[in-house]
Amino acid sequence: MAPPNRSLDRNIRFSDERDPDAILGGLVQNGSVTEMNFLSMLNIVLITTSPIRVYAKATGTPVLQADAPLQLGDYIIACNDQIHVSNEIWLHRVISYSVSGRDDSFRNGIRARDGKCVISGIKNMSTAGNWTAFEAAHIFPLELENLWIEFNYGRWVDDIDHDAGISKINSCQNGILLQSTVHREFDQYLLSVNPDDNYRITVFGVDNFGIDGRVLDPVCRNPEDPHRVSDQLLRWHFRQSVLANVRGAGEPIFEHDFPPGTDMMKEIREGPYAQERFERELAARFRETEGKEEGCPTKEFLMASWGNGNGPKSNILS
Q1: How far apart (Å, rounded) are the C-alpha atoms in residues 46 and 25?
Q2: What is the Cα–Cα distance from 30 to 202, expressed in whole angstroms?
Q3: Which one of 140, 151, 257, 284 has the largest count of C-beta atoms within 10 Å of its C-beta?
């Protein structure tokens, strides 16, 4: 089954003045996106060598660097030079039931610091340590730790020493506490936080939970807290969300709810980003099973299953 198409819910679209019928991208405006936000997003997804001018297709009204809400409709991008759509890499994530990984200190630290879903504002009222509805979410995905190391994203974390024996990817500065439903949307880049817009939350899909336009709760970003969330990592996630939702037709939204007996490997193999998804699933699952009892599937077994089409079912990998 084809993954959901992010572009179908769009009520904002934009195109090049030279070819106004060819849509370059768009977004879902739930109310929080301002004209200034829109221009900032265009600077992420479009490449030009000269300044752009943006105006409403129907009225010719220019889009300005203003805090006014962006009106619904189609927009034209004008430029003295060619306009190209960026080919910047978008990094999809493994959508797992729990992505806190095996590091208890990350989960416990995020719970202690936040105590609530910092996006919805819903508090955990349990006095019995029941965190069932809440999950500690990594901002930069745990399964991409090789890229974290390669591009030195750890430079954005300053609450863990290099010699502490703990990967900086598990720093509390790379995490926030979310309700499980919000966590799904965060991992799919369907919502994000813009630290350069007063930590405003943008919902890039349909706003089912009334979150769009809220502000990230201050509890996780107290400047006096050495474990405060990293602005640079939030900025990274927001940029990835813009690439996923605003550029072209948007990136695929991957299924996460696999019924028992589903051939998950087949679903991955026949879908978009097949090889990358498989490798990241492997990385995530081996992180979860590392150090557990004997009998867990080996990397060689899973690689062979991938190749011969007899991949493990969802009860093994989910």
Answers
A1: 10
A2: 8
A3: 140
